[in-house]
Amino acid sequence: MPALLDGIRVIAFVGPAGTGKSLRAQFVARQREIDYIIDDGLVIARGRIVAGKSAKTEKNMVRAIRRAMFLFPDHRAEVTGFLRDHSPCSLMVIATSQGMAEKICRALG
Predict the structure, then answer these.
(1) What pTM, to 2 d.p., does this model score?
(2) Strand 42-45 versus strand 48-52 pairing type
(3) Are 95 and 69 a contacting pair, CB within 8 Å?
(4) How much of the chain exceeds pLDDT 70, in percent?
(5) pLDDT for the residue numbered 66
(6) In this structure, are residues 26 and 13 in contact, taking their beta carbons and an 8 Å threshold?
(7) How high is the pLDDT of residue 82?
(8) Which residues, in sequence order, are bridge partners of residue 36?
(9) What is the mean pLDDT of residues 37-63?
(10) Phi, psi dihedral angles at 13 (to 5 degrees)
(11) What pLDDT is attached to residue 6?
């Protein structure tokens, strides 16, 4: 069975924490016609949250990182199910490093 992200154009938007990546990503996604953005545990379409749970809701930094990296099985299943049902052609992953973006992609298949 092919991985979930096979055939999807995946773009990483990488930069340090607190530099406005999320805001800029919205503009870039519209400009480049990207279907969905993965940001901090959420799936976002045209500025609206459509699936997932925000890492910002977690009580401590360790859980927040695990949430953002889709390491909780129920959270990962919700997001992968959404992506499978909506068949995006393109996806932007927002991360603080290339390694983090790659780990998110691996977690989502």
Answers:
(1) 0.89
(2) antiparallel
(3) no
(4) 95
(5) 96
(6) no
(7) 96
(8) 91
(9) 96
(10) -115, 105
(11) 73
**Torsions phi, psi of 75, nearest 5?**
-65, -45
Amino acid identity of 6?
D
DSSP state letter for 71: -
Lowest mean pLDDT of 13-17, 50-54, 68-72, name the range: 13-17
Closest CA to 86 of 55, 43, 22, 23: 43
Question: How many Å from the N-terminal Cα to the C-terminal Cα in the chain?
Answer: 11
Burial pattern 55-91, b for ≥16 Cβ within 10 A else e, equals: beebeeeeebebbbbbebeebbebbbeebeeeebeeb
Is 95 strand, coil or helix?
Answer: strand
Contact 43, 83 (CB under 8 A): yes
Considering the chain, what is the average pLDDT of its residues? 93
Sheet holding 90-95, edge to edge: 9-14, 90-95, 36-39, 42-45, 48-52
How high is the pLDDT of residue 1? 40
